[in-house]
Write a structure and sequence with these properties.
about 150 residues, alpha/beta, Rossmann fold, globular
């Protein structure tokens, strides 16, 4: 893991982390929670096998700045398309950033077409294959955008 400098003056974002309804993995969610908290943000970790309706309800209630969807089982693409449509349809979440990452497919191939479709569906960023460096860069820019 890269060394992370924590700025105590950085604005804190509220970040909701969630697995998808079909994904029972938790280690990825705990890792992301600890990483994002280390960067000074408040984290709500909904856990694994989160029903779509629960994710939407929690986001509507908490009004997070960022929602992070993590997939390990390889069904992130299909689950992500569905979740983006549900979350994007909520007017009170219109300004909420939405990202997805991890193993998005089961064939072992990365697909630019998948990424484009997920972005078109409503995700702000796609971190296919769990690109941690790109995710950290995104979080840094995201936090900077909140400070402006």
């Amino acid at each position: 893991m890269p060394h992370i400098e924590v700025s105590r003056t950085a604005p804190k974002a509220t970040v909701v982390i969630s697995g998808t309804a079909s994904d029972s993995h938790t280690w990825n969610l705990v890792y992301l929670q600890l990483l994002i908290q280390e960067l000074g943000h408040a984290v709500v970790n909904l856990g694994s096998c989160v029903p779509d309706g629960l994710l939407v309800a929690e986001c509507r209630q908490r009004q997070p700045d960022l929602v992070v969807i993590s997939s390990v089982n390889g069904h992130g693409f299909n689950d992500g398309l569905r979740l983006a449509a549900l979350l994007s349809s909520q007017p009170e979440l219109a300004d909420t950033a939405l990202v997805i990452g991890g193993k998005l497919g089961t064939d072992g191939l990365r697909s630019v077409g998948w990424q484009r479709r997920l972005l078109d569906a409503g995700f702000d960023r796609v971190f296919d294959g769990g690109d941690l460096a790109a995710f950290l860069t995104y979080l840094d820019r995201f936090a900077g955008r909140l400070a402006s």
